[in-house]
Amino acid sequence: MHTRNASCLEDGRAWKGDLNRALFPLSPALAAIHKPKSDLWRKGKQAIMVSIRNATVQNSNLWCLPENYQMKYYYYHIMTWPQLLYVAEERGGKIVGYVLAKMEEEASVPHGHITSLAVLRTHRKCGIATKLMKAAQRAMVESFGAEYVSLHVREGNVAAIHLYRLTLKYQYKGYYADGEDAYDMRMPFTDKCNQAFSSQVNRFKKVLAEKDAAAAAAVANANSA
Description:
Blueprint: E1 23-24, H1 28-33, E2 37-43, E3 46-54, E4 56-57, H2 71-80, E5 85-90, E6 95-103, E7 111-119, H3 128-144, E8 148-154, H4 158-167, E9 171-175, E10 182-188, H5 191-224
Parallel strand pairs: 7-8
Antiparallel strand pairs: 1-4, 2-3, 3-5, 5-6, 6-7, 8-10, 9-10
């Protein structure tokens, strides 16, 4: 299974069509449990009212979704873990962002995984991605008893790393190899998992420090040549 782009897709490459065509409102039963929560964001001088709510897929449009997944994978995702799909919806019904997450199957420790996160370019830097992530993380704990959540993010995706590392407090666990450099990041929900991760996190910090030192040395050598 390819998961190269399973991290934050805020670079816009996943948005090749109108996501509104891919989603439809919750059933009345689910809507009663997952009531939309509206927040007012400001983009410059413009006020943006956005609701974070659960959603399901009716007629998925492949162009709206990350390129490296087969459609049956999305159907399986959403039919199996409908609690973990959230969308950001403007007043009037326009979908401006989504997060697609799952629970890892047959895991010794119950934990979730962020498969895909995207926010329309026009609605970034408003806190929407943070709200979507927190909604999915909360649902993992409340619905499935998750003890931690993981994700993969490309090394060059600076905006996504800033969101995960600095805003949401994810920790580097190691590298994820899938044809390009990517980080394996995790956030523990319990003290037990936090303690279990600490040694791995510290080891990887040393790896990153050595890599940074090597890069700095290479630049210094190039400048002195």
